[in-house]
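input
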Amino acid sequence: MRELWSIFSKGILLENPIFVLALSLCPALAVTSSVMTSLTMGLTVLFVITANNVSISIVKNFVNPKVRLPVYIVSIATIVTVSQLVLQAYFPLLYKALGIYLALVVVFAIILARAEVFASKNNVVRSFCDGLGMGAGFAIAMVIIGGIREIFGSGTFLGINIMPASYDAPLILILPAGAFILIGYLIGGVKIIVQRIEKAKA
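output
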């Protein structure tokens, strides 16, 4: 049980996909102007990476190593397509807000990386925990970025005004450039925390 917790928890902080591994930064720049779009993208990636990890761990022994990457891509594309159809049917506004970036989940580096590095070498339970942890870490990072950008860039949270009427929101936080600067500071902060945790363990 401790081993499974270790596999799950590393994706939250020590190997966070955005703040530590710096993978799949494209959506972190493009769709984090609000908490809702950030959360939707985060949960979509969480579902895709977990389902794909489980799928790859099941079929890994039946796949010729020479064609493993095309198999991984087909698996990811199938799961992403299902996610797209669900969002389009039940949450059309969020589907429209995410736009092309939802389809680009297929080529997110973090999903393919976990399939290659972890799921192809481990059993279903371990792969599930790894996908869940990495997906949760990605979703948490997206919500943190989206929350900061929405609060200080728009003066709202979940679309509700929380800043005084006199608040003059800096435009840069809504732009991708502002997201890039913010992510840089967050990566620096998380790196300091990770270093302190590793020193404490040592």
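quick obs: The mean pLDDT is 89.
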